[in-house]
Amino acid sequence: MKYKSQKVAYWFFALSMLLFGLQIVYGFIMGFAHAGFDNLHEVIPFNTARAVHTNLLVVWLLSGFMGAAYYIIPEEAQRELVNVKLAYVQLISLALVGVVAIVGYHFNYWEGRKFLEIPRPLDYLVVINVLLFLGLILVTLFKGKRRTTTALVLSMGLLFAALLYLPGMLPFDSQVKDSFFRWWVVHLWVEGVWELIMGGILSFLLIKLTGVDREVIEKWLYVIVGLTFLSGVLGTGHHYYYIGVNKIWLIVGGIFSALEPLAFLAMALFAVNMYRKGEKKHPNKLALYWTLGASIVSFVGAGLLGFAHTLPQTNLYTHGTLVTAMHGHLAFWGAYAMIVLAIISYSLPNMTGRKLYESTLGRMAFWMSNIGIIGMTVAFGVAGVVQVYLERKLKMDFMVVQKEIEVHFMVLLVCATLFTTGIILYMIDFYKHGRPNDEALESVSDD
């Protein structure tokens, strides 16, 4: 590692690991409830568990993105972070937001808006936190010796993610208007600017892991950015089909949703092609597994499965069913969770000086978690198709249908156990590396 200030990334990654583990716990609570074992209902109702589960996903991924930026930007800009102490202040405030929000959900103090349930007063703390983060990153980049395409794309994604949080803070009396602008946050995050963040992290990792020339990799990055903005922005329309907006969104949303897989296909081809061109001599094969895995699984989960159910003719039946959960779980895992785990796997040995990637524990974590999530995706998909047929074709009662699909959640829980075992092994590997140390900081790597 080149710069001592990069070690602040470790603590953001540690927070991500903690919140990820907690998210999985609440996922199991919901899984058991779906399977007919809702024994915790009086303590943690399903709606509370769901709010905690989805919002923890957002917070731990954001913490991972921030950690990635604190590691990547100093190295790309070729200078230390402008103020390390403020970065730790920002970390503490981010953790505080997460803790207060989780406690608030258990006391029914929330907004009731999917993915944005955070209580409104906390929104202002989030804004302050993100402004501080962006200030540190952008000033570091501005004062640096160089401004690479990789750093600029990553910074642009982070900046736009912050700006697109603001529409979700606007108060509306109309449910239609509120839903319209809420998707400016949720969709334009996960199917727009977060893809830029993923692209920036992916570019950095491929430069480091494959040995391919920076100019070659960053030219591909321009293609991905273009496809992302073309398809992702107008593809937002597939959320507008049934909320009362003009019917033009059926056409716009349908066409551009069909184009969205191209951005993820480009990302997958980008990663695999760079790997094939590379020297393949980097010792950290584990980081390479996660990097290539992220690009391929995101294409399947976010690209193909998203396309499979967002076309208007299909979405008429699948909207709001477990088919959405099928797509959502594999999409978030491949596109964003895996890229965060990839940058952690790459940076952790550099920060600690311990090359634990040479053990089998990390490889077991990779394969068990991926096989487990694929099993979960299949279980969600089968349950979703059954739900669509019974509920929306045969017009059976919602709760009767939920009873009929309980067996699929038993299968899902088995797969989730395999997935969780893999994540536990990853976390053991993470903590076995130990904390960053000065000896590791003296080891300087070159592009």
Number of domains: 1
Strand segment count: 0
How much of the polypeptide forms β-strand, as a percent range? under 5%
Q: CATH architecture, please? A: Up-down Bundle
Helix-and-strand structural type: mainly alpha
Low-confidence stretches: none
Average pLDDT, all residues: 89
CATH top level label: Mainly Alpha
Rg over CA atoms, rounded to whole Å, is: 21 Å
CATH superfamily: Cytochrome c oxidase-like, subunit I domain
Enumerate how many helices there are, as a single number: 15
Biggest pleated-sheet summary: none
The general outline is globular
CATH topology: Cytochrome C Oxidase, Chain A
The first-to-last residue Cα distance is 11 Å
Order of helices and strands: HHHHHHHHHHHHHHH
Helix content: over 70%
Walkthrough of the structure:
By secondary structure, the protein is an all-alpha fold. It has a single domain, classed as Cytochrome C Oxidase, Chain A. 77% of the residues lie in helices and 0% in strands. The protein is built from 15 helices and no strands. Helix 6 runs parallel beside helix 11, helix 9 packs antiparallel against helix 11 and helix 12 runs antiparallel to helix 14. The longest helix has 36 residues. The mean pLDDT is 89.
In summary, what is this structure?
It is globular, with a radius of gyration of 21 Å. It has 447 residues and is mainly alpha-helical. The chain has helices spanning 8-34, 46-77, 84-106, 120-143, 149-163, 175-210, 214-234, 248-277, 285-310, 312-318, 322-352, 361-393, 398-404, 406-432, 438-441.
Give structural attributes.
447 residues, mainly alpha, 77% helix, Cytochrome C Oxidase, Chain A, 15 helices
